[in-house]
Design a protein that fits this description.
5 copies of one chain form a homopentamer.
Chain A lengths: L10 E6 L3 H17 L8 E5 L5 H14 L6 E9 L5 H20 L3 E8 L2 H7 L12 H20 L1
Parallel strand pairs in A: 1-2, 1-3, 3-4
Helix pairs in contact in A: 1-5, 2-3
Chain lengths: 161, 161, 161, 161, 161
């Protein structure tokens, strides 16, 4: 994800603080994979936001501000964990966050990777963060999100050049 | 949330009048927490709206008018309580309000905090306003919304500067 | 809702013709309440549309045309009754109408009141039009919509001035 | 739907080819009713599209192209039949088509009539095309869509003048 | 799909890598059918994206970049396979992808064909890729998508001329 002719773009990772331990694993999985793909650690910015509803807004503001400074991000991975509770909060937040992240990508022209787990149980979330009770069923989805971010950055950069 | 170089921005709280007693607790939880975080009471505006469907429109109009006056709000907390009834009103209002509040944040560039409870029972709403029958299960979500508002105001202000 | 310094704005009521008797009661409840709140009858325009899907489009066109003529409406109450049938028509119309009315408010800057009942039975609709079998459970929601219209007109007019 | 002072606007009917026999009845019901309401047959354009997902896009492109040519359509009736199958295709297509048609009306300023049946069984669709097993339960909804198109054309034309 | 007076437009196929074998069949069905309809193989571009959430963004960026280069695509077929899992990921991705693809068509003015299967079981997906256990129930939907792409390209090109 080096882009010699531009100010060095960096992937950005945004993540929420709910279910903090699971989120931390997903963030680590994303960051480590980005590094293993050749992205210099100094080129990865990680930003906290309160919850999944704030992810689209924060992504939009940070992507636009970086572009305005002449140091655009190559991609943004929006990471969060939503787990079904007893009210309908899960459904409305999940829907608004997923639609919002789609909109932010389409409006800004920068790739936004959906790193939001929408699980019915906490165990489902742990499995998708590589920390399930059964290692055979565990896989850290942060790995996939990092690969997607690099791939989408490479695909979409020429479309803005 | 002091912003010395700009006209003093204030957080705005919008809230509905349905389920008035629960809403009042949520508003108090938000306001008290904002104050405890150092926001001067004179810098907090509280505005009534009729119901949750009106929250996104009111948020947009007030955020834009304040910015046009040169005294922008730092953030807006939209507070309401929706409880499942016998018709489908709950589902359509909840969905329209959550999508609308997301849109208003993305369109205006000001952080809008989703302070709308979407509950299946009134007891669920009371618990989330810190007034449930079982104190151990009660927590006033207004506290979290105030923290989110301050955090998102700090995160997003430089993106508009 | 008198606005001395502008061309006299009027509230507009839009309503559908499905479930005509129930709609007529809701329109009457809205109109009578607007009058009781001091809105001159000559300042209330009532317009028919075929069904709920047409409400957002009609609201947008009439609000914009009135503004372009220099005689803006202060608010628009969109009234309709949707009742669950055997196909999925109810669900898709309800969703599109509620989202559309939200969008029209946000796009035009004029308050649009959601006067659409989304009921599972006709009796539920009658109760919400003040004509249920059990008077104790009956309440004409048009009364609330009129109050909301006046309140939102007062709240939002300075934001456009 | 004669509009003497403008280039003669025509209603446009768009329809899909899935469930072709039922669609043909709905198109005939719409066209015949438009004629009975005084729209000259030469003023009705009928256009095929592959499926319901294509209706909003085709409506937008044709409405805009006609307006750009100085021969705007007075309205567009988008006709299709969706029937629940074993996958979730029905739900996602129905939702995207209904939202898309709403958006096209709001964006173009031309009335778009939702002539899309969203049925759980084929018999439900036949009944709504006037061809159910029980004639007493059968009614061709194309008749209503034609009436809606004429009504919305009359209502909305002055808003664009 | 030859368009003599313009730079030769090409149909674009975008596809995801999840459920790779089924996707490969759908891509082959689409490509072969485009060829059988007279589209020169050199005029068909096939692009990989990580998953269905990335389809709308990639479609928008590639359609716009091609138009900016003076070599617009005639249409884009977005191909992917989503299968219901144990979390709610399927529902939120399906919804965001279908709405996003609709939006991209409406915003760019280029036809986007929904080639996304939203299935409850893998066997349902295999059947729709022409590889079900029961050949009589198997049909490669790529064939239909190719036909739709050609038809929509022909329908929509004059609307942009």
């Amino acid at each position: 994800m080096r882009c010699a002719r531009h100010a060095p773009p960096r992937p950005k990772e945004l993540h929420t603080r709910w279910n903090a331990e699971i989120v931390a694993r997903l963030v680590a999985g994303t960051t480590d994979t980005l590094a293993s793909l050749g992205v210099a650690p100094g080129h990865i910015d990680v930003v906290d936001v309160p919850g999944a509803f704030e992810l689209p807004f924060a992504a939009q503001q940070l992507l636009r501000a970086a572009a305005a400074r002449g140091a655009p991000y190559a991609a943004c991975v929006a990471i969060g964990v939503l787990i079904k509770g007893s009210t309908m909060h899960f459904e409305y937040i999940s829907d608004a966050a997923c639609h919002g992240l789609m909109d932010v990508g389409l409006r800004t022209g920068f790739p936004v990777i959906l790193g939001v787990l929408t699980c019915l149980t906490e165990e489902q979330a742990r499995e998708r963060a590589g920390a399930g009770a059964d290692p055979a069923r565990s896989h850290n989805h942060g790995i996939d999100w990092a690969v997607s971010a690099v791939e989408m950055a490479l695909l979409s950069q020429p479309t803005r050049a």
